[in-house]
Amino acid sequence: MSIFYLLVFPGFLFLSALGLFMEYFDRKVYARMQNRVGPPWYQPLADIIKLVSKETIIPYDTNKKMFAALPVIALAAATTAIFYIPIWSSHALFSFTGDIIVVLYLLTIPTLTFFLAGWNSNSLFAGIGAVRNLTQLFSYEVPLYMGLLAPAFLASSWSLSEISQFYTTHPLLILLNIPAFIVCIIAVQGKLERVPFDIPDAETEIVAGSFTEYSGRYFAIFRMALDTELVVAATLLAAVFIPVFVANPFISFLIYLAKVFVIIFILAIFRSVMARIRMEQMVKFCWRYLAPLALAQIIINILIKGVLPL
Amino acid sequence: MRRYPGKIIKEAMGNLNSKAATNLYPAAPSIVTKGYRGKLNYNSKACTGCKLCVRDCPAKAIEIVNVGADGEKIFECHLDLGHCIFCGQCADVCPKKCLKVTNEFELATTDKSTLNINLKEV
Amino acid sequence: MMQKEVPIMGRVVVPIGTQHPALKEPASFILTLEGEKVVSAKAKLGYNHRGIEKACENRSYIQSLYIVERVCGICSHAHSTVYCEAVEELAGIEIPKRAKYLRTVVCELERLHSHLLWLGVAAHEIGFDTFFMYVWRDREKVMDILENFCGNRVNYGINTLGGVRRDLTPEIIEDIKNLCKLMDERLKIYTDLAMGDATLAGRLAKVGRLSKETAIQYGAVGPVARASGVAIDVRVNDPFAAYDEVKANIVVDDNCDVFGRVLVRVLEMVDSVRMLRFMMDNIPDGTISVKVPRKIPAGEVAHRVEAPRGEDAYFLASNGTEKPERIRMRAPTEANWHAIAHMLEGDYLADSPIIIAAIDPCYSCTDRAIQINDLNTGKQDILNWQQLKQYSINWHRENNGIDFAKLKIK
Fold first, then answer.
1. Which CATH number does the domain housing residue B85 bear?
2. CA nearest to A123, candidates C15, C354, C400, C37
3. Which residues 62-81 in chain B show a CB within 8 A of chain C?
4. Chain B: residue nearest C167 by CA?
5. Of A236, A254, A266, B115, which residue is most buried, by most CB within 10 angstroms?
6. How confident is the model over C100-144, as pLDDT tens digits?
């Protein structure tokens, strides 16, 4: 039974299908906002198939095993995180105390693999991209963690399933977490390395950043890992900030799909209307505006918890 | 004025349900204006074989060949589409106006030998 | 020979070029970085040399016109205009007034399309793809008018020796008037966006500084100089075509950085629209060309026009036959690119693409042949193709340790 969970639902096949479809949706919205036609629905799948069929070139002086293993680690880490997030009911597939921290760590592993991939590539542009990856990690990580832990404070629990249970029984308190939602959705744009925070992957400055030397199968796996990270991050935000579940699991699943669509639509709007900012501008922005806002949200939650009888 | 990011959002959201500015060529046809300089059109009967067009071509792409027998003058025009830069200077300088510029532009081919064509009147 | 530089700890040498997604044409900029800041920059050109000046010496004047037009795709009408005016001056011929006005109409349309192209490319370099798509969509309207009037979207062959080849029809005049109305609203939106969007201003302001004295010292021309406060414009200082009657305004800005260059180009577009409107109402009647003899009398002439990128200057020498003796083209980018190395130092790596793009480089215009003067021995030399190839192999072998002589190209 666990093989079914791992490979089909909600594991690898479900995440891959949903990831490819969400990439199509994101690219279509981006294109329509630019007054273009946009790609057809099978475009992300066609891209992966094309990449797999191309020649894989490994640079001269690198560690070949690490070069081949890093994409797989990124994909595996992003896929494992889905098991602890509630999708079709307010109980996730597996849950234990502290699993919100585990999910956040599992989502940080892909960023570390991007850094290692760039550093290992023995190439100039990849090295610069790798260093930018880490600097970006230092800027968005603290606001993202604080913003995601603020609802946890109010619910007095470190388990995602218990947080969902708490908010399902006290629905009005969801509105209290709106500043944290704003902080997290901006910080998630940084985690997924999309415009305006796509500094590690800036095409016109450092060719492709960490992925400059990746081609063929390994690049296809990295692309799958990026798509999976997109879906998992959207699911996490939906579970923590919009935990709306009903009794029937099928209808809950449809509501979950609607939530993911809305979050990815907002992320696509961010991508269309802004220019890419510089590294030091991003560090200043995250530490000057996002981190204090998340801190303020935590303080408000602690005060509310002390006042209301929960 | 106060600066804020994302100033273009109103126009971008308005574009979501508007007609796209690009078209899916070659599934949809590409329309060129009637003033476009494309392939040449040649009137063999009016040609006197003065070869002013050959002299003035910047790319040495055009040739006038006499295919008549026994001193008879029947001319053919051979054009190398690979060399032609579609400037229209040959049509300008022809004294009998037997070369005309049309707006046919879809001349690409995968076989290089088909680029040497014998211009006919259309 | 180049001196070997002692490597300093913590510094990385990054080549932007020869092939790079930020550059539209091959050029080589070698940056030395400390962290993200550029400490020193070196620029090398010459990858786009096609032998145009030599090709013109073997062709007649009317054939050379089409070769000269293809020096650059974006400012091709400027090159063709200066060539035609130079030859007409040598032949002592005055072209009709209507022809001058028609040449000016295409000059201003070309300025519009070139500045729109530049604005889109600059937006792409800073990662703002939405703005890029909008600007290029508006550029398509200008290209459609050029296609209908001149016959082609780039390399419009509207000029001929002695005038122009095609005439305006009433429907083209109507199209241009509609274009002016459209461009007025779109340019207002773009100006508001440039001034009011925080991410754009954050990337463009205080980047690539070039003070007024440095601009004059390096000999910058065009919008680069005008954005540093130097008020020069060939259309006003030395009018050509119909610019003595159609007055142009010099758009000057004091910002001295990339933001100033964006503002100068957008305001120049607004001015172009004003001039187009004026010309549509005031074109004189008459013929559109006169006949120019095939043999041009001997003489030398130097002439210049204002291309969208700056001052485009030509030197033409003729020896009384059908073929020109010597054409020397000095494109505006040749005057501007010396300032790039100066502007790159002191800014971040993330700013280098936009700084390089801000002078609107067109390396196809720039690469011409040079004559090598050895200052030590006073010997003058012109290297032919084989000697140049051998020189390049020796240079790379000694300085970079790479031996290209053994390279087999499949």
1. 3.30.70.3270
2. C15
3. none
4. B35
5. A236
6. 999 999 999 999 999 999 999 999 988 899 999 999 999 999 999
